[in-house]
Amino acid sequence: MFSTLFTVLLAFLGVSLLIVFHEFGHFLCARASGMRVDRFSVLGIGPVVLRLGWWKGTEFVISAIPFGAYVHIVGMEAGEDPAQALPPLQEKDEDGVRTPAPVVYDPNDPYLYRNRPVWARMLAILGGPLANYVAATALYVGLFVVVGPEEPVTVRADSQKMSDTAVAAGVKPRDEFLRAAGQDLEGVGPAGRLAAVTEAHKGETIELVVRRDGAEVPLQIPVNEAGRIGVGLRPAKVVRVPVTAGEGALLGLKEPWIVSWKNLQGLGQLFTGKAGISQMTGPVGIVQGVAQAAEEGPASYIKWLAMISALLGLFNLLPLPALDGGRMIFMLIEATLRRPINRHVEEMIHGYGMLALLGLILYVTLANDFKLARLFN
Q1: What's the pLDDT score for residue 13?
Q2: What is the pLDDT of residues 169-189, one digit of tens each?
Q3: Are 210 and 259 found together in one domain?
């Protein structure tokens, strides 16, 4: 029980640090492009519970909900008119009470977000995703240089990605796949071997032999018309491929973009109907995945954090309202038209986009992540 709680806490901390690094990217680029940043919550969201101090006009704080972080760039939100900074606390009065006093900037201040040139605003918005790619690259390079890339020789069922059909067929989380339709799956490229077998047996039911608790268990599992059995895969047994430091560094530089491209292909399949929403993972599933990786060891944990960091960068670059990529689209339109877009209309679109995004996350979390019988089994 303690081990499970520790790995969950480790996963929670790791994902939270990636979000902090994302916000630090926004902060760094906003400051570099001459913007006023009046608050950086380096840990947590919501009401401030601890004030760490000031540096060059920015207050550093810790907030009540200990997950993630946020940066407040003055003049970014449409409602800040005139541009009003977050209120710092003044010295205690005679009754010992600290009273917040708002700081109001001139709406024509050239250093407010909305008054900065398009290139500066683009840089501030891109700072978050770029920071995630930098973190992912650093983690991958360090991992590959120190221990080398891994090569799976067997795969197992991922508890996060199991269809009801696969569960009904008897597949359990962490089952190690040994043979499918008589074909040996052990060796280099086990996922590719399984894919070749299922592709050849579309619409059929095949025998899948798994290793469970040290024993081989034969299962009869249907293959759908798309050539899938509805089970996500994770490496089970892996071997480390020896590489030089230079080769490891080069592989680490490439890996975030390989991960991004594979996930873009997955998104393409989602939009074209070749994949279902049941294959998506929400925040709970992400933390669960990182927790499982932590149980497997430091190398697996670092690899998953690197992958999540790359995916955070990719996700935020998607051209959807409320995301960094959506804000970039509006700035590209502004640059093309050579006039600013109505800020209230833009923020309304981002607001509805955020509601839609939160609704999707809630649905995915309830429908896919909270399959309680499978969590941590």
Answers
A1: 85
A2: 888 888 899 999 889 988 888
A3: no
- The rounded distance, in Å, linking the Cα atoms of 231 and 177 is 11
Q: Is residue 26 part of a domain?
A: no
**Res 108 pLDDT > 50:** yes
Residue range of the domain that includes 181: 151-240
pLDDT at 372: 41
- Specify whether 284 is located in the same domain as 197: no
Choose among 116, 146, 138: nearest CA to 25.
Answer: 138
Average confidence (pLDDT) over 217-222: 91
Structure tokens given for 23? 């916000």
- DSSP collapsed to 3 states, the chain: CHHHHHHHHHHHHHHHHHHHHHHHHHHHHHHHCCCCEEEEEEECEEEEEEEEEEECCEEEEEEEECCCCEEEECCCCCCCCCCEECCCECCCCCCCCCCECCEECCCCCCCCHHHCCHHHHHHHHHHHHHHHHHHHHHHHHHHHHHCCCEEECCEEEEEEEECHHHHHCCCCCCCEEEEECCEECCCCCHHHHHHHHHHHCCCCEEEEEEEECCEEEEEEEECCCCCCCCEEEEECCEEECCCCHHHHHHHHHHHHHHHHHHHHHHHHHHHHCCCCHHHCCCHHHHHHHHHHHHHHCHHHHHHHHHHHHHHHHHHHHCCCCCCHHHHHHHHHHHHHHCCCCCHHHHHHHHHHHHHHHHHHHHHHHHHHHCCCCCCCC
- Does residue 2 lie in a domain region? no
Name the domain count of the chain.
2
Q: Percentage of the chain with pLDDT > 70? A: 85
pLDDT at residue 19 above 70? yes
Judge whether 91 lies within some domain.
no
pLDDT tens for each residue of 38-49: 899 998 888 888
Tell me the mean pLDDT in the region 2-13.
75
130, 263: one domain = yes
Amino acid at position 227, single letter: G
Distances in Å between the Cα of 111 and the Cα atoms of 8, 33, 80, 114, 259 are 42, 9, 14, 8, 37
* Dist CA 311 CA 259 (whole Å): 8
What's the mean per-residue pLDDT of the chain? 83
What pTM was estimated for this model as a whole? 0.77
